[in-house]
Amino acid sequence: MHKIIIAISEDGFIADLNGNIPWHIPHDFKWFKMNTYDSSIVMGRKTWETLKKELPHRKNIVLSHSTCSCPNQLRSIDEVNDYFYKNNGWIIGGTIAENFYTKGTLIYLTHVHINVHNGTFLKLPNMKTIWKSTTFSHKDMMYTFTINIIL
């Protein structure tokens, strides 16, 4: 079984035009770490390349057709699905998440209440919110955590 964890702006962007996350929210990093600790995480090549190193205490897996200098690589959606059939884990960031929108999948979203306007857009599926945090603030940036289930 897999889950998806993503931070997204009000207007649906997960990165700016340069591929960088346009916010820095320490609480969101803690939320991410708490949820993914000691789990497998699957990411696309572009997400992998933005990391400075492997994320510790997680099995880092990169989904990419081309060879990459990554610790573990799967080359197809089917390979990832086979992996998740035997192992629990997370799809983290990136537009690869759209390939794993299946009924019943949980999506952990950090809603960052800003508009980015341009960059990497992520279309969210039809889903129902099953849990919502209070709204938090960091340096005048508002954000909310939700857990959602794909319908």
Description:
- With 151 residues, this protein is α/β, with parallel strands linked by helices.
- The chain has one domain: Dihydrofolate Reductase, subunit A, CATH 3.40.430.
- Helices cover 18% and strands 38% of the residues.
- The protein contains three helices and ten strands, in the order ββαβαββαβββββ.
- It has helices spanning 26-36, 45-50, 77-86, and strands spanning 2-9, 13-15, 40-44, 59-63, 73-74, 89-92, 106-112, 120-121, 127-138, 141-150.
- The strands form two sheets. An eight-stranded mixed β-sheet has the order 5-4-3-6-1-7-10-9.
- Strand 3, helix 2 (45-50) and strand 4 (59-63) form a beta-alpha-beta unit.
- The chain is globular, with a radius of gyration of 15 Å.
- The model has no long low-confidence stretch (mean pLDDT 95).
Write the layout of secondary structure elements.
Blueprint: E1 2-9, E2 13-15, H1 26-36, E3 40-44, H2 45-50, E4 59-63, E5 73-74, H3 77-86, E6 89-92, E7 106-112, E8 120-121, E9 127-138, E10 141-150
Parallel strand pairs: 1-6, 1-7, 3-4, 3-6, 4-5
Antiparallel strand pairs: 2-8, 7-10, 9-10
Question: What is the ordering of alpha helices and beta strands?
Answer: EEHEHEEHEEEEE
**How many β-strand runs?**
10
| CATH homology superfamily name | Dihydrofolate Reductase, subunit A
Q: Specify Rg, calculated over alpha carbons.
A: 15 Å
Mean pLDDT equals: 95
Separate helix tally:
3
Backbone structural class:
alpha/beta
